[in-house]
Specification:
The chain has about 325 residues and is of the alpha+beta class. It has helices spanning about 50-60, 120-125, 155-170, 190-205, 210-220, 230-240, 245-250, 255-270, 290-305; strands spanning about 65-70, 75, 80-90, 95-100, 110, 135, 145-150, 175-180, 275-280, 280-285.
Length: about 325
């Protein structure tokens, strides 16, 4: 389920008086007092949380089943405005949006604010963390693809096949791919357990993760909530992994916090469906046919020849060492 977003505003006033001085002074023009960030009584303001909530509920027909939270104003990159974030949620679905509110509280703007000196995907790049994530492709590649996926999702199976077959063949040194778990618990009963098992495989043998990834998608139609653990152990047997260790890891949910971390990361990036791809920070939701995905990769490769503001360096977290440039 996707939730959308909206717009609103606040006003201020201040009065000042001059006291009489003991000695008479020459007459001067009255000075205008500076405005304060406070509401004018009786006027609607976007900084009033109840007013803002009522406005966006009416705008988007958000009934009582949807929770709407209006956060406190924050500084805005645009002069004369403040930023107010709205967070809407219903069950497992959630979405947050930033609104620019004029300082008088009367108007709001909804939209993305870009700094021309920065990448248009600066915010997304700052949130993508690829450390300790399964990956394949050349380190230092100019194009980084981060995939948020769900092992129970049929569209993810389709996209996974496209990425696994086409990228290594077409871009052996130019693209690096990272995998992020994003199980849709509300509609996929065994996706989370499959994600936990995958992280257990990755812990035991990092190079075996992609074999697990391919095997689980290939056997997706045979898996259910009752046999997902056994299927993971079945895979482990084909790769001579330690099935006892893997079973203990799955039963104890030792890697669930890692899955929760990638889910939280996805939500911070407004991921609400799978698959969702970030290509050098550019968000591409849904399953994408290879010709279209290839066009975006080629475009980004050309762009990176002149402006290297993305690629591997943007999405990799290294230890603070003078040897790590």
């Amino acid at each position: 389920m996707r939730l959308s977003s909206a717009t609103l505003a606040l006003g201020v006033c201040l009065s000042a008086s001059l006291g009489a001085l003991h000695a008479q002074k020459p007459k001067t023009a009255p000075k205008t007092a500076p405005a304060k960030a406070e509401s004018t009584p009786g006027l609607k303001s976007a900084f009033d949380k109840a007013t803002m909530e009522a406005y966006v509920r009416h705008l988007f027909v958000w009934g009582p089943t949807i929770t709407v939270k209006v956060e406190d104003p924050k500084p805005s990159p645009v002069a004369g405005f403040q930023t107010v974030t709205i967070v809407a949620s219903a069950g497992a679905a959630s979405q947050s949006e930033d609104f620019l509110v004029s300082k008088d509280g009367k108007h709001i703007l909804q939209g993305k604010v870009y700094g021309v000196a920065d990448s248009p995907f600066k915010d997304e790049l700052s949130k993508l963390k690829t450390d300790l994530s399964p990956s394949f492709g050349a380190p230092g590649a100019p194009v980084v693809v981060v995939v948020f996926s769900d092992f129970e999702c049929q569209y993810c199976k389709q996209e996974a096949k496209t990425i696994r077959e086409s990228i290594p063949k077409e871009y052996p040194t130019q693209v690096r791919v990272y995998f992020k778990d994003f199980p849709l618990d509300a509609i996929h009963p065994w996706a989370r357990q499959a994600a936990i098992a995958g992280r257990c495989v990755f812990r035991q043998a990092p190079t075996a993760f992609w074999d697990y990834h391919d095997w689980m998608f290939e056997h997706q139609g045979e898996i259910n909530a009752d046999n997902v653990k056994n299927k993971a152990l079945e895979f482990a047997g084909t790769k001579k992994l330690d099935t006892l260790m893997l079973g203990q890891c799955i039963d104890s949910k030792a890697t669930e916090h890692e899955v929760d971390k990638t889910v939280a990361e996805g939500k911070s990036l407004q991921v609400n469906s799978t698959p969702t791809i970030f290509l050098n920070g550019r968000k591409i939701p849904g399953s994408v046919a290879w010709p279209q995905l290839k066009q975006v990769i080629d475009f980004e490769l050309e762009y990176q020849k002149t402006t290297a503001d993305a690629g591997e360096k943007c999405c990799e977290v290294k230890l603070p060492s003078p040897l790590n440039k």
